UniProtKB/TrEMBL annotation:
Its cofactor is Zn(2+); Co(2+). This is Probable succinyl-diaminopimelate desuccinylase. Pfam families: M20_dimer, Peptidase_M20. Its EC number is 3.5.1.18. PANTHER family: ACETYLORNITHINE DEACETYLASE, ARGE_DAPE-RELATED DEACYLASE. GO terms for biological process: lysine biosynthetic process via diaminopimelate.
Length: 416
C-alpha cells in the first residue's frame, strides 16, 4: 500500500468534509477572555469518537478543557499535533463585513474569527488524525492530538499546564499556528511584558500644571523613554544569524509588510494606559501596560533592567510588574527530523521550494522546547487578517495544510 498516495487522494475526495469542519469550529464563539471552551470541546470529542478515537479531558481552569487523543502503536517516536480552541474577541461587530462566528464559505475563503488563528489549522490536524484512524494506517509510532483551551491570553492553562504535569510527552511536535504556505516557522522571538503604575498628586484641573503633580504627564515621559529599548544591540550566535538573514530576505519578498527590521531588534508596544478620574482633576495615578518582544542575542531580563534604567533617567521610579509571559528567543534547528520532513512534505504536496523561517512574534512553541521537544509551526492563514476584523483563511491553503499534516505523520512515525 502506498499510504502517501492514498492519503492525498482521500483528502482530495473529502475536501467538503474538511471545509465543513473548519466552518463548524468557527461557529463556536470561544473568545478568550472569558475562555469557555466546553461547547467546542464537546464537538471535537464527538467528532473524534465517530472516527473511533477516544479523548482524555483535563480541566485546567473553570470551563477550560485540555483534550488529549492518541492513535497508533507505541514505539520510539511520539508525534504531537497541537492546536488551541480559543480565539481573540471579535471586537466591534459593526466593523465586520460578515458575522464573525458564522463560519461562512465564500469566494475561496473560510470567513470568521479564528479562521486563520487557528481554527482552520486545528481542523486540519483533527481531520488528518481522524482520517489516519478511519483508513487503518498502521503507524509504527504514536500520534497524539494535543488541543488546548488557552493560548491567546498567555497560555498558562494550556500547553505548559499539561506538560508540567507530565500528562503527555513526545519526541516532536507540530503546532497549527498560521504561517506562510511554503515557510513553516521554526523559531520565535522572546517576550518581556510588564506594567507599571505612576503616582502623582491630585489637584484642581484649573490649576495644572502649576499645582498638582499629574501621574499621566509622568507616564507620558516614561512611555517616551521606553522607546529607546529598540536601540539595544543583540549579540547573535553565528548559526542563528544565518537563519535571521534567511528570514529577513523572506520577509522583504513575501510578507505583506516588510517586517525584516523586527527580527534583530527589541520591539515596544504601549498596549494600554489607564489613568485619572475625570477631566478637571489632576491625575493621581496612571497604569501602563507594555508588550516588548526580545530578539536572539538579548536576555529578556536585560530588557527589563534597561527599561528600569530608562525610567529612572527621566525621574520615574516604579516597580515593573510581570504580565503576560516572559521568555527568551528560541528555535528548532532546520536539521531536526521533524523540520526536514514537514518541509519535504510541503514540496511533495505542491512541488514548490519550501524552507523554515523565524517568526517575529512569540508562541506556545517555547514550552515544547523547554521540555526538550523539537517543534515547528505550520498552518493555513490570510496573515494580514489575524486578530483583525474580517478574518479569513484561503481554502486551498486549508487543504494543503491537511495534506502536509498527514504526510508528515507518515514520514516521521513510519508504518508497520
Amino acid at each position: 500500500m502506498d499510504w502517501n498516495k492514498r492519503l492525498l487522494e482521500e483528502i482530495d475526495k473529502r475536501q467538503d468534509e474538511l471545509i465543513d469542519l473548519c466552518s463548524k469550529l468557527i461557529q463556536f464563539p470561544s473568545e478568550n477572555p472569558p475562555g469557555d471552551t466546553r461547547d467546542i470541546s464537546k464537538f471535537i470529542i464527538d467528532y473524534l469518537q465517530e472516527a473511533g478515537i477516544g479523548t482524555d479531558v483535563h480541566e485546567s481552569a473553570p470551563n477550560m478543557l485540555n483534550l488529549l487523543s492518541t492513535i497508533g502503536a507505541e514505539g520510539e517516536k511520539h508525534l504531537l499535533f497541537c492546536g488551541h480552541t480559543d480565539v481573540v474577541p471579535a471586537g466591534d461587530l459593526s466593523r465586520w463585513d460578515f458575522p464573525p462566528f458564522g463560519g461562512l464559505v465564500r469566494d475561496g475563503y473560510i470567513l470568521g474569527r479564528g479562521a486563520s488563528d487557528m481554527k482552520c489549522g486545528l481542523a486540519g490536524l483533527i481531520f488528518a488524525t481522524a482520517l489516519l484512524k478511519r483508513l487503518g494506517v498502521p503507524l509504527a509510532g504514536q500520534l497524539s492530538l494535543f488541543i488546548v483551551p488557552d493560548e491567546e491570553t498567555g497560555g498558562h492553562y494550556g500547553v505548559p499546564w499539561v506538560l508540567e504535569r507530565g500528562l503527555i510527552t513526545g519526541t516532536a511536535a507540530v503546532i497549527a499556528e498560521p504561517s506562510s504556505p511554503q515557510h513553516p516557522t521554526i523559531g520565535q522571538k522572546g517576550s518581556a511584558w510588564f506594567e507599571f503604575t505612576v503616582e502623582g498628586t491630585p489637584g484642581h484641573g484649573s490649576l495644572s500644571p502649576f499645582k498638582g503633580d499629574s501621574a499621566i504627564l509622568k507616564a507620558a515621559k516614561a512611555i517616551e523613554a521606553l522607546q529607546k529599548l529598540t536601540e539595544m544591540k543583540p549579540t547573535i550566535p553565528a548559526d542563528v544569524q544565518e537563519m535571521i538573514d534567511i528570514s529577513k530576505e523572506y520577509a522583504r519578498k513575501r510578507e505583506v509588510l516588510d517586517v525584516s527590521d523586527v527580527y534583530d531588534h527589541v520591539t515596544v508596544n504601549i498596549g494600554t494606559i489607564h489613568g485619572g478620574t475625570k477631566a478637571n482633576v489632576v491625575a493621581d495615578k496612571c497604569t501602563v501596560e507594555v508588550d516588548s518582544r526580545v530578539p536572539f542575542g538579548i536576555d529578556y531580563r536585560d530588557v527589563l533592567a534597561e527599561a528600569k534604567r530608562l525610567l529612572l533617567e527621566v525621574g520615574v521610579d516604579v516597580e515593573l510588574k510581570p504580565i503576560g509571559f516572559r521568555a527568551n528567543a528560541n528555535w528548532t534547528p532546520p536539521t531536526e527530523d521533524i523540520v526536514k520532513l514537514l518541509v519535504e512534505s510541503i514540496t511533495d504536496v505542491n512541488g514548490q521550494e519550501a524552507y523554515g523561517v523565524l517568526q517575529w512574534a512569540t508562541s506556545d512553541a517555547r514550552h515544547f522546547r523547554n521540555h526538550g521537544i523539537p517543534v515547528l509551526q505550520y498552518g493555513p492563514a490570510e496573515l494580514s487578517t489575524i486578530h483583525n476584523f474580517n478574518e479569513r483563511a484561503p481554502i486551498d491553503q486549508v487543504v494543503q495544510a491537511a495534506k502536509v499534516y498527514a504526510l508528515t505523520a507518515l514520514k516521521y512515525l513510519g508504518v508497520k
